[in-house]
Amino acid sequence: MSDRHEGLVIGNWKMNLDHVEAIHLTQQLGVLHRNTNIENVVTVLAPPFTDIRSVASVIEADRLPFQMGAQHVHHLEGGAFTGEISIPMLRRLGVKYIVVGHSERREYFGMTDAIVNQTLTAVVAAGLTAVVCVGESSTTREEGDAARFVRDQVGVALDRIKSKFASNVVVAYEPLWAIGTGAVPTGEQVAEMASTIRAAVPSDWEERTAVLYGGSVKPDNAELLMRNGDVDGFLVGGASLTADGFLQIVKVVSDCYSKKR
Ligand code: PGA
């Protein structure tokens, strides 16, 4: 873990759970959270767009300590872009964190590095936090090119972003070969990449820009990854779909930060 004083855990529900199921999961998370001693962690839920209003209502009504997130957004404010969602729409719903350039958006929906940069620029300009995803494929890693690849991705994503926005940027290291596969890098490999990422952000950003790890994070590997990985928390996919599993991961991050204080 790094020297920051608060952890960050984001649950990316991907294209799972309709709004009724989402309400149910949020309520379960609320009950478990109340019965678990969790401190020093910002916990973010990033459900599908159609669930955001419902999840936000449960968070508000039950006064749950969760922040709203979204999995993607269009970089323009509005217009003829059938099927897209804008930043003002999400902000109105109370969304604070937006995942930008997830590898699934890059791979299946043609999100280029340039669009990632435009989206990140628009998200931070709106006062929200952009969680930009970077990570190499297994081929790139086998070729020994992972560090250069990730460094370049970070460089392009942050191109021309002003330093005043440093704390509105979170970088999530998500190696493609670990997403949804059950394969995870060692803590040392994560730490190496976290340090590559910190070296790739402008030098005065380092303290303010959080670095997360994502890719098959589960309750049983979270502690090692946290202990040895030098990250500020996790971006969790599959394991964020059950209240128990997700809260166990949040608890691991909480315990690490509480020990430190
Ligand atoms: P996973 O997904 O935890 O299911 O591997 C992580 C992600 O894609 O953000």
Descriptive overview:
By secondary structure, the chain is α/β, with parallel strands linked by helices. Helices cover 44% and strands 16% of the residues. The chain contains ten helices and eight strands. An eight-stranded parallel beta barrel has the order 1-2-3-4-5-6-7-8, surrounded by six helices. Strand 3, helix 3 (87-92) and strand 4 form a beta-alpha-beta unit. Helix 9 (219-229) packs parallel to helix 10. The chain is globular, with a radius of gyration of 17 Å. The two termini are 13 Å apart. The relative contact order is 0.17. The model has no long low-confidence stretch (mean pLDDT 96). Bound molecules: 2-phosphoglycolic acid. 2-phosphoglycolic acid binds next to strand 8.
Q: In terms of topology, how is this protein built?
A:
Elements: E1 7-12, H1 19-34, E2 41-46, H2 49-61, E3 66-70, H3 87-92, E4 95-100, H4 103-108, H5 113-125, E5 129-134, H6 138-142, H7 146-157, E6 169-173, H8 187-200, E7 210-214, H9 219-229, E8 233-236, H10 243-260
Parallel strand pairs: 1-2, 1-8, 2-3, 3-4, 4-5, 5-6, 6-7, 7-8
Helix pairs in contact: 1-2, 1-10, 7-8, 8-9, 9-10
The chain binds 2-phosphoglycolic acid (PGA).
